[in-house]
Design brief:
Blueprint (H helix, E strand, L loop, with lengths): L4 H13 L18 E3 L12 E7 L4 H15 L5 E7 L5 H16 L2 H13 L8 H10 L4 H8 L2 H16 L7 E4 L3 E3 L7 H21 L1
Parallel strand pairs: 2-3
Antiparallel strand pairs: 1-5, 2-4, 4-5
């Protein structure tokens, strides 16, 4: 892509404002390697009645920051038979492990909706180095968070358990880059020819339909 990430994002926002981003036709045929790739072996559903959609991400990833507003809006409108969740990854980096811990602790504290995008922006726009407990807690204090209570969550057994479960999923799904969207433990959304996030998420919609049809036919 010839545009820089910043120019691309600005162009995308401007085009969305006037409704000029063309969405990929829903009836288009999906092509393996272009639109999706298989997960092998297939991973079981968390709920047998729900199609699992997972976004593997990290606050340390600038592309995840760019995708975040779009995917959150998209996820809010998913059908009732689809379950969406986000799994932060560390790839063995201590700094990213603290960011993963921050995500889960924000979720438990009830501050995730308010501060989720702000964490991304602090890291990638403001160049805040939120990689240590002290840096994280200092930043949270400026955001009005009770850091004494938050510290208990940050180092809690519940958060530690979520981290271990997340790491196990990363290994089972063979996550090697972020952001990565998976569908029903069967498919990774590739979107190699997607021109922007709306087209990428339209492909994800089609992959969900493919997964639903697969489940119906056994």
């Amino acid at each position: 892509m010839s545009l820089t990430r910043r120019r691309f994002t600005q162009g995308l926002v401007s085009a969305l404002a006037v409704g000029m981003i063309p969405l990929r036709p829903a009836a288009a045929n999906l092509i393996e390697g272009r639109d999706w790739r298989p997960i092998s072996p297939h991973q079981p559903r968390t709920n047998p009645d729900k199609i699992d959609v997972i976004e593997f991400f990290s606050y340390g990833c600038p592309h995840c920051m760019d995708l975040n507003p779009s995917i959150k809006g998209w996820a809010a409108d998913l059908p009732d038979d689809v379950s969406f969740r986000r799994i932060p990854v560390s790839f063995g980096r201590a700094a990213w492990a603290n960011l993963a811990r921050l995500y889960f602790a924000l979720d438990y504290s009830g501050d995730l909706d308010r501060l989720d995008q702000a964490v991304f922006e602090a890291l990638h726009r403001d160049r805040a180095r939120l990689y240590t407990e002290k840096a994280i807690f200092d930043w949270l204090a400026d955001k009005g968070v009770d850091t004494d209570a938050f510290a208990s969550l940050f180092n809690s057994f519940a958060v530690e358990t979520q981290l271990k479960r997340g790491e196990a999923l990363v290994e089972r799904y063979r996550v090697d880059a972020v952001p990565m969207i998976t569908v029903d433990g069967r498919y990774v959304v590739v979107g190699r020819e997607a021109k922007g996030f709306p087209e990428l998420l339209a492909i994800a919609d089609d992959v969900i339909l493919m997964a639903r049809n697969q489940a119906a036919t056994g």
